Amino acid sequence: MPHHPEIPIGRFAPSPTGELHFGSLVAALASWLSVKHAGGRWLLRIEDIDPPRQVAGSATSILAALATHGFSADGAVLYQSQRGGAYAAALQRLRDEGHAFPCWCSRTDLEASGVLHRDGHCVSPAIAGREPAWRLHAPDLDIEFEDLLQGPQHQNVRTAVGDFVLRRADGLWNYQLACVVDDAFQGITEVVRGYDLMESTPRQILLQQLLDLSTPAYAHIPLAIDANGCKLSKSHAAPVLDMRSPLANLARALGFLGQPVPDAPTAAGMLRRAAGRFDPSPLRGIANSEPAAKPMPTDPASR
Ligand SMILES: [Zn+2]
What we know:
The protein is α/β, with parallel strands linked by helices and 303 residues long. The protein has helices at residues 22-37, 58-68, 84-96, 107-113, 157-160, 175-185, 201-210, 246-256, 267-276, and strands at residues 9-12, 41-46, 78-79, 100-103, 133-136, 142-147, 151-156, 165-167, 190-194, 217-221.
């Protein structure tokens, strides 16, 4: 998808696993403010590649909730469930270039071995008639990047996560691969998202390098947490936003992001004014001291 290189393009990419909640409103808002402040475009992507975790109808209700809060995408919504061909092409390229290998290890195999799966050595031998998972050979290499809010980051993917899965044995695509392929396809130049995804970023940069894709700028924002210090996520049955009060919801989300709340008669008007005066400095470094700002647990069998 060609784009003018000087126009920043951001995105919000929810998984349809429930209703829009306060934490995801904050993430949508942060990505919007950042790119709109710079006069850029904002795109939407529904990350519906994990059917077992999805809730029927939630993609539609998330999109409706975003519209109620004044968000409008500058382009068609991209659905990852329609993108299998592009993910398959990326995997094929990684296979052709020797970066991916088939793996028949089960979770039990890996647990029994007492080590993470590493260096392209399967614990299990090939099993005739059974589809393998496909894994990336994780190179022994420090991936470094400068997070726009959290400063310099680095991770050795091999040490931290090992040879991670690209496509599961059951055919489901890995989040990292799908995200990288689609960020490139949508021409994304900046990724503003929750701190819980910081831990994924080095794997995504590694895949970008192996697939010759450009690396967007990254900014990871603090997570909205509840009174118990838990992340406000759909999986914890976070209270749904009251759709009758989008202005109040936006005001709360702006407050969470340390932004002033402009007077506006409509949600779209409030978004526009807030973008005009967006200042990211209250968000710098905050995630590092947040109690909930721990990376998501890495499951080598699924991620
Ligand atoms: Zn294996």
